[in-house]
Amino acid sequence: MSALPRAHELGLIGCHVCGLVCRDNQVEDPACPRCGSALHRRKPQSCARTWALLIAAFLFYIPANVLPIMRTASLGDVDDNTILSGVVELWVKGSPDLAIIVFTASIMVPMMKFLVMTTLLLSAHRGSNWARRQRAMLYRLVEFIGYWSMLDVFVVALLTALVQFGFFSEVAPLPGVVYFGLTVILTMLASQSFDPRLIWDCQDEDD
């Protein structure tokens, strides 16, 4: 089956900001007529910027897991917890639902985002035609879960509120929260800087 025509073959270009499809007038530095944003057939230096942000996020993720993320005190017992030890602490203190939320948001989601974005970058760099539709779906998944990546920080705030209800006598955030927050922000920026159209740039003519 012959390949479908590409946007540039039809003289079209899409706005990254508002999604408006515009006519490509082949002028230098074209702007979107709806929102005024600069139009690009592909995001400039997409892979390089995404790699830089993703590597920085991974470097911040290391101290986010090594340094304590919160301090809990109950019945005179004071503990400074990392993410993993905090999960165990929540489970032991009778909050398995919060423990599952923290583990999912702080361990599973970031590692999945690192894995997916690395796969997308490597395949785009190689011009791979492997599983393009599935890779596009993975990119949309990363974008979707990015909105929920700050759950761990919200959980620390929630635990602070639980002090009023007697679950803990004291809960305080520690430096690990800052590094985790930076990790979340950088992974979100990395997913936004990646141009998913790179997935489709090297499709075969007979695909």
From TrEMBL:
Q: Which residues cross the membrane?
A: 51-70, 98-123, 144-165, 171-190
Which coarse location class applies to the principal site listed for this UniProt protein?
Answer: membrane
Pfam families recorded for this chain? Answer: PqiA
Q: Which residues form a coiled coil?
A: none
Q: Give the UniProt entry's GO cellular component terms.
A: plasma membrane
InterPro entries reported in the protein's UniProt record = PqiA-like, PqiA-PqiB_transport
Instruction: Kindly list the places in or outside the cell where this protein is found, as annotated in its UniProt entry.
Output: Cell inner membrane
Kindly state which keywords UniProt assigns to this record, in alphabetical order: Cell inner membrane, Cell membrane, Membrane, Transmembrane, Transmembrane helix
Q: What is this protein called?
A: Paraquat-inducible membrane protein A
Q: Which organism is it from?
A: Dyella choica
